[in-house]
Amino acid sequence: MDDRDFLCLETGNINEVTEVLKRFIDKHNQTFTFTELNDDGKRRRLWTLLIKHLENSDDAPCHKYCLACIRILSRDKTDLNELVCENWLGTLLRLAGLVSQEEALTRINQLNPDYEVILEALKCLCNIIFNSTTAQVLSSVNHSVEGIVMRLRTYRDPDLPADIKFFDMKMLFLITALCAEVRPRLKEELHGLTYLIETLDLILKEASGEDHEERGATCGDMPILLSDELVGLACEVLKVLFNLTVKSGDRSLVDEEEEAHFLRLVSILHDLLLCETYSKEKQYELQNHTVNLLMSIPSNCYEELMTPVQKDARELPKGLEMEGRSMEAIAVLLQFLEQRLDNMSQGVRSQSEVLSPVLTVLVEGSRSHRAMRKFLRAHVLPPLTEVMTRPEEGNTIRNKLCRLLTTPNTQVRDLVADFLFVLCKENVMRMIKYTGYGNAAGLFANRGLLLGGSSSGSRSGSGSGTAHYSSDSEDSDTEEYREYRDKINPVTGCYEPPKPNPTAGMTEEQKEYEAMQLVSMMDKLSRDGIVHPCRVGEDGRPEPVEHVLQLIEDLPHQQIKPNLDDTDSN
After folding, report:
1. Given this model, what pLDDT does residue 462 score?
2. What is the rounded distance in angstroms from the CA atom of residue 47 to the CA atom of residue 69?
């Protein structure tokens, strides 16, 4: 922008100003940095002129072009903190229709709102809040959040464009993500949790074409089909809800009112999981944000994911009913996990981001709800038929999870181990049967279970990190497993054919000599610091030994001890 353009913005008529703005927009529509504005105060001069036109109601015909210019300029962080001030931000909020409750009441009968201007102003605010810490601080104390909540109440208006709803939620997400101090006020004083849940409910009703209160994603023969537009809005709402519900402490400690909100929210998330979309990418995105939100909700509310099967309802696909409840939503979560396992990049660092949320949801749900655990076990750890290959070899979900039991990513490794262990009702022998002792040794060492037995959580009452498992059990071993059971190596978890005895033909003196050679070599490795021999202590955890000969002391006590609960069961 040259001096003539600046002069025109300062003294030109409305048509001349509009032409200058249009040229700037066309030229810089894909520009993200403006180095030419760094000299002679051009950047502040341009911003000041644009805001001046926006504050003048007589210049309304060029407001949307001024806002488009600000949207483009706000991509550049240069001097943005110094430029943004309370008055300028207030002007943008007013044009976006985000005003205080008192002012909103005076505008209630305003006719013909300019939705183009409102949308451009919202885009400007999103850019500025994202790129400016000054704007973030101001947005946490002004009426930005209050204005969005006020408009949330009007989302039933069919004339309100979907793009405005989308950018409302995008702006609210940015504020709640970057200004944590806003969350309690939005949640409690402004009742944001209630309005956001109603917005999700409204999305489902709009997609299904229902106006009545009773709504379900699969109440008819066909599931609800969400447009890309509605998926985008739903995802933004889910992101805001995550910001409002995420906690660092015990998620089970909620009051009755909050629990009621969570139960209703989970019932809506159930329906969102069962919705269909026009593209797989959008469905994957919707499921991803749904899982993230479930992770921040107390697991006792997951019961709403498993709706009771009604006698007069449509017939469920085979295998999707467990103990009189529909497992359709749980099957979607399991399918989502499989997709993540298949599409996961080989990088260890990305494993936590990709897998931790859905694994956390499945672990907590399985630990809290018997029906969910039984359904997941039937699909993840079905009765063994393949005993010739190691548990980590193959393409079943059990194989893929077993491979992660030895990943260097400790967060994912521990979550996978917890998931499989809960599906095994926290029984050591059953875990060894499905994963092999070598793969599960890390879990056993952490929990003091290297000598066998069951986790203490399996005998305690329900609560955070614990579960109560029923004592009913039945033999579910397959014929293939029974045939080779005695020849399965518990360390590798698969059948190994008999091997020739390497000491066959040796005299007792030769055997003793070879044994002492082995002890000598292990002792040398230990003294050189290459290995550190350990044995299993009385607490079931590894403890170091002073000398390798200590490994053979008290040898019978080092063996895994099966208990009465080691029989296989559902």
Report:
1. 37
2. 9
pTM over 0.90: no
Distance, CA of 299 to CA of 364 (rounded, Å): 6
In angstroms, what CA-CA distances link 155 with 39, 162, 378?
45, 9, 43
**299-350 pLDDT per residue, tens:** 999 999 999 987 766 677 888 888 889 999 999 999 999 999 988 765 677 8
Count other C-beta atoms under 10 Å from residue 331's C-beta: 18
Give the residue among 317, 314, 341, 342 at the shortest CA–CA distance from 330.
317
Q: Parallel, antiparallel, or unpaired for β 325-326 and 459-463? A: unpaired
Token pair 């298949």 in the structure block, residue: 342
Annotated domain spans of the chain: 1-83
Paired tokens of 555: 């040898």
16 token code pair? 């001349």
| 3-state SS record for 299-351 | HHHHHHHCCECCCCCCCCCCCCEECCEECHHHHHHHHHHHHHHHHCCCCCHHH
The answer to whether residue 212 scores a pLDDT higher than 50 is: no
**pLDDT band per the 50, 70, 90 thresholds, residue 249:** low
Which backbone phi and psi does 28 adopt, to 5 degrees? -115, 20
Mean pLDDT of 41-61: 94
As a whole number of angstroms, the distance between CA 242 and CA 245 comes to 5
Instruction: pLDDT band for 454, please (50, 70, 90 cuts).
Output: low
Write the single-letter amino acid at 357.
Answer: P
**Chain centroid to CA 376: how far?**
19
- Nearest CA to 339 out of 331, 329, 348, 347 is that of 331
Contacts of 505 (CB under 8 A, 6+ apart): none
The Cα 558–Cα 540 span in angstroms is 9
Query: 350 versus 235: which is more confidently predicted?
Result: 235
R_g (Cα) of the chain, nearest Å: 31
The owner of tokens 């950047």 is 43
Place of tokens 């400007």: 124
pLDDT of 100: 79
Write 317-325 long-range contacts (CB < 8 A, 24+).
319/378, 322/371, 322/372, 322/374, 322/375, 322/378, 323/370, 323/371, 323/374, 325/371
The Cα diameter of the chain in Å comes to 110
